[in-house]
Structure to design on (516 residues):
C-alpha cells in the first residue's frame, strides 16, 4: 500500500512574498477556500506578527476555512508565537510553525549569535508553542548550507521538546537533487528520534531544481512537501504544487509507493484564481498549467496527436480540470455550447451566474469574430477577482491625436448617483484616470502598468494589470476589453473599488474619497 505525501501549501505566505504580489483580506480568503476545495493538507496563510492586516487575514481564514490544517509562521520569539496562536486558535486543526536559521552564513552574519545559544532558542520556542497546541512544526532555515552534525543535534533536541514536523528547507535554491536526497537520508539515519516526527521539505527554484529536489526528498523519506500554486514565491519562486502533484500521479510507474489526496480536477481553476488575484500571469510555457502545455504547432506533432493523444502528450488536460482542444465560439453560439466549454475548462456556474456570464460573452462576441478559450478564461478571471464595486463605469469617451490635447469624459455610477467629469492628461488613459480621481476623491500613485493580448489578431482581447499605491496600501487592479483604453480604465476602477472595499473591511466609516 502506498504512503501519503502531505501537501503543505504556502501560496498565501511565501507565495505572497513574490515581488508585485499583493492580496487583501477578501482575496486571501477566496484563495484559501479554493485551496480547501483542492484538498491540500495544510494551508500556511501568513505571518501574523508582521502587521494588523496580516493578523486579521490569518484569523479570518482560521475561522472560515474548514478541512485542511491551518498554520502560520513565527520566529523563535514568544511574541511571534503568541500572535500565531491568537490568529489560528479558531481553526479546526491549528498548527504553529516556527523557524530559525542553522547555517553558518546566517548564524554569523544575520543572527550574530553562538550556535549553542540558537539551539537553546529553538528548543525553548518549541516548548513554548507546545503550551498552545500539540501540532508544532520547526524549520531549520538555510538547511542545505548548514553543517549536518549541528543540524542533527538541533533536530533531535526540538523533537524531544515536542516538535511533530521537521522542515528541511532549501531556502536559497542551492541544492541539487542527488545531494538533497542524501541530506534527507542522512538526517533519518543520524537522528535517533526522527521516527517521532514527519520530515518536510521546502524548496526554492533559484537553479530551476525545486520540483526535482522535492520529489527526490520524498523518495528518501520526506512525507510532507511545501509548495505554492504556479510556483510563485521569493526570487525565482518555490516548488510548484501542480508539478509535484501531477508528477507523482502521472509517473505512478516510478512513484508507485506514494500518493497525495489533492483533487487534481481543481488544479486548473486554482491556478487561474491565484494568477488573477495576485496579478502574476501564468507563463504560456509553464509546465502542467501553461496555455501552451497542451498546444501543438508542429505538423508532425499534430499528425501524431490526431492519431493517438499519447504520442505527444503524457498528461491529460482533463486530469487537472482543463481542456486540450479549443472550441471556437462566436456571438451566434448558443448557451449550450458556451456552458459546455466552461464545464470542460472546470468552471461551474449556477443559472443566474451563467446568465450574467452569457451576457458578457455576447458583448464580447459582438466585438470579435471568434471567441477563444483564452477569452472565456479572461472573462472568468474577472469574475473570480470580482470585488463588489463602489463605482461602476457607465460611459467613457476619449480624445487624442498628434496635434490635439488628450482629454476624457468619464461617467461613473455609485448606488443611484451619476457622476460625470472631464479632464486632460499626457494621453487618453492619463486623462481618464484624472477624471476618475476627481469623482472618487482619491489620487493613487500608479506603480506598474502591464498590457497583454489574451488572444491573437487585431480584435484580440486586451488584459491590463496595474498596481496602484495609496497611503500604506498597494492594490492590484485588472480589466479586459477589446479596447485597450477601456481595459485600462476598468483596471484602474477595479483597483480603486478594491481600495474602498478594503478601507470598509478595516473599519473606516469614511473610506478615502468616500464623503458623506
Amino acid at each position: 500500500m502506498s504512503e501519503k505525501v502531505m501537501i503543505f501549501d504556502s501560496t498565501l505566505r511565501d507565495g505572497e512574498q513574490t515581488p508585485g504580489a499583493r492580496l487583501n483580506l477578501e482575496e486571501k480568503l477566496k484563495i484559501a477556500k479554493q485551496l480547501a476545495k483542492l484538498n491540500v493538507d495544510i494551508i500556511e496563510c501568513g505571518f501574523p506578527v508582521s502587521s494588523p492586516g496580516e493578523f486579521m487575514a490569518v484569523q479570518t481564514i482560521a475561522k472560515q476555512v474548514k478541512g485542511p490544517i491551518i498554520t502560520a509562521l513565527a520566529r523563535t520569539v514568544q511574541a511571534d508565537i503568541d500572535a500565531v496562536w491568537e490568529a489560528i486558535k479558531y481553526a479546526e486543526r491549528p498548527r504553529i510553525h516556527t523557524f530559525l536559521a542553522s547555517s553558518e552564513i546566517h548564524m554569523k552574519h544575520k543572527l550574530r549569535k553562538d550556535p549553542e545559544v540558537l539551539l537553546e532558542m529553538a528548543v525553548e520556542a518549541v516548548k513554548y508553542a507546545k503550551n498552545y497546541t500539540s501540532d508544532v512544526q520547526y524549520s531549520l532555515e538555510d538547511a542545505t548550507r548548514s553543517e549536518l552534525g549541528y543540524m542533527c543535534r538541533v533536530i533531535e533536541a526540538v523533537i524531544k521538546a515536542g516538535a511533530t514536523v521537521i522542515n528541511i528547507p532549501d531556502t536559497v535554491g542551492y541544492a541539487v537533487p542527488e545531494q538533497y536526497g542524501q541530506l534527507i537520508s542522512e538526517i533519518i539515519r543520524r537522528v535517533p528520534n526522527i521516527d517521532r516526527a514527519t520530515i518536510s521539505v521546502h524548496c526554492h527554484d533559484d537553479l530551476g531544481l525545486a520540483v526535482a529536489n522535492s520529489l527526490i526528498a520524498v523518495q528518501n523519506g520526506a512525507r510532507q512537501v511545501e509548495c505554492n500554486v504556479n510556483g510563485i514565491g521569493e526570487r525565482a519562486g518555490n516548488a510548484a504544487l501542480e508539478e509535484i502533484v501531477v508528477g507523482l500521479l502521472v509517473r505512478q510507474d516510478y512513484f508507485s509507493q506514494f500518493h497525495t489526496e489533492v483533487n487534481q480536477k481543481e488544479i486548473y481553476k486554482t491556478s487561474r484564481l491565484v494568477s488573477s488575484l495576485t496579478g502574476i500571469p501564468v507563463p504560456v510555457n509553464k509546465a502542467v498549467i501553461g496555455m501552451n502545455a497542451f498546444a501543438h504547432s508542429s505538423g508532425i506533432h499534430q499528425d501524431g496527436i490526431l492519431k493517438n493523444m499519447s504520442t505527444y502528450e503524457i498528461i491529460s488536460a482533463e486530469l487537472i480540470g482543463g481542456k486540450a482542444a479549443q472550441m471556437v465560439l462566436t456571438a451566434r453560439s448558443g448557451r449550450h455550447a458556451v456552458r459546455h466549454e466552461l464545464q470542460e475548462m472546470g468552471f461551474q456556474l449556477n443559472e443566474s451566474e451563467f446568465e450574467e456570464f452569457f451576457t458578457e460573452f455576447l458583448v464580447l462576441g459582438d466585438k470579435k469574430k471568434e471567441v477563444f478559450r483564452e477569452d472565456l478564461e479572461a472573462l472568468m478571471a474577472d469574475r473570480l477577482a470580482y470585488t463588489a464595486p463602489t463605482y461602476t463605469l457607465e460611459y467613457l469617451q476619449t480624445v487624442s491625436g498628434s496635434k490635439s490635447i488628450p482629454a476624457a469624459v468619464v461617467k461613473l455610477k455609485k448606488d443611484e448617483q451619476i457622476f460625470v467629469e472631464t479632464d486632460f492628461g499626457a494621453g487618453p488613459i492619463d486623462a481618464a484616470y484624472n477624471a476618475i480621481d476627481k469623482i472618487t476623491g482619491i489620487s493613487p500613485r500608479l506603480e506598474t502598468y502591464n498590457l497583454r493580448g489574451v488572444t491573437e489578431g487585431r480584435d484580440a482581447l486586451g488584459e491590463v494589470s496595474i498596481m496602484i499605491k495609496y497611503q500604506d496600501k498597494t492594490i492590484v487592479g485588472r480589466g479586459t476589453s477589446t479596447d485597450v483604453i477601456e481595459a485600462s480604465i476598468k483596471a484602474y476602477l477595479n483597483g480603486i473599488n478594491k481600495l474602498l472595499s478594503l478601507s470598509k473591511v478595516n473599519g473606516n466609516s469614511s473610506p478615502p474619497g468616500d464623503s458623506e
Remarks:
- The chain has three domains: 3-278, 299-384, 392-505.
- The radius of gyration is 25 Å.
